[in-house]
C-alpha cells in the first residue's frame, strides 16, 4: 500500500500539516525538521500522488516548446509523430506542449522563436539545433542565465550546457557506413560523401565518422571531397552528374541525409544504378523504393519516433517528478537494413 502523509507524520512525531508543508517546500517549517521529514519519507518509500502533481503542474502553467528545423523532410515528419504523442500525454497530466516548425536549417528563425518563448515564460525547450556560434550562445544563455532547460534532439551541440541529447550517435553511424562500404567495394576505389546542409551537426558527424573509418581501416580507398545538396533533389542530381563526369570510376556514394531521390534518379539515368554502391540513412518510403530497385545497397536507421517523444517526456519528468535524465547522451539504436530484411 502507498505510504500516507499521516504515517510519515507519526514516524516523525509531527502533524500531518507540517509533513505536507515540508514535502511541498511551503515554508513555515524549521529547516532541520523539514530535512528530517524528507529523509523519513524517502526511507518509507513515499511517492506523492501523480494526479496531485499533475494538478499542481496545471496551476504552475508548465509549458514545453519543441522547435523542429527541416520540418519539411520526411524524417522530421516521423519525429513529429513522436512529439505529438508526447504532447497528448503531457497535456492529459496538466502540462502543455507547443510545436514550432522551421523550414530548412535556419538558426536565425530558431533564435527568434527562442526569444518569443522566453517572453512567454516557457518552462523548457526541446529543439533541433544547427552549427551556428550565435545559436550556441543563445542555448547557453537559456540554460545558465534564464535557467530554462533545453534538450537537443536529432542533432547535438555539446558545449552549450544543454540538459541532454536524444538521437543517433552520428560518428558511430558514419563508421558503420564506412565498414559496409569497404566490404562491398572490395577495400579499394573512389568514394564520396553527399551530405545535406553544411550546418547540420548530425550529418557532419556522420561524414566525419565515415571519413575517419575509411582512412583508418581502408587506406586504399580514395575519399573524394564531400559535396552538399542542401536537401535539394535537383542539386543532388547535378552533383552526381558532375561527379561521374569527373570521376568515371567512382565506386561508392554515402548519403548522410535527404535528397536520396535526386541522387538515385541521376544514377539510374546515367546507367550507374547497380555499378556504384550506395549507402543511405533512414527507413523512409522513398529510400525503401530505391533499395528494392537495387540502387541503394544498405540503409542505416535511427528511431525517429523516440527522438520526438523522449525529449518532451524528459522535460516533463523534470518538472513533474524532479527527475534528471539518467544519461547526457541518449543514443538511439543503429540498425542496418538491406532489401532482404526491410
From TrEMBL:
It holds the Pfam family Peripla_BP_4. This is LacI family DNA-binding transcriptional regulator. Residues 3-57 form the HTH lacI-type domain. Belongs to the bacterial solute-binding protein 2 family. It comes from Blautia stercoris. InterPro entries: Bact_Solute-Bind_Prot2, HTH_LacI, Lambda_DNA-bd_dom_sf, Peripla_BP_I, SBP_2_dom. PANTHER family: ABC TRANSPORTER PERIPLASMIC-BINDING PROTEIN YPHF, D-XYLOSE-BINDING PERIPLASMIC PROTEIN. GO terms for molecular function: DNA binding. It comes from the Bacteria. It is found in: Cell envelope. Keywords: DNA-binding.
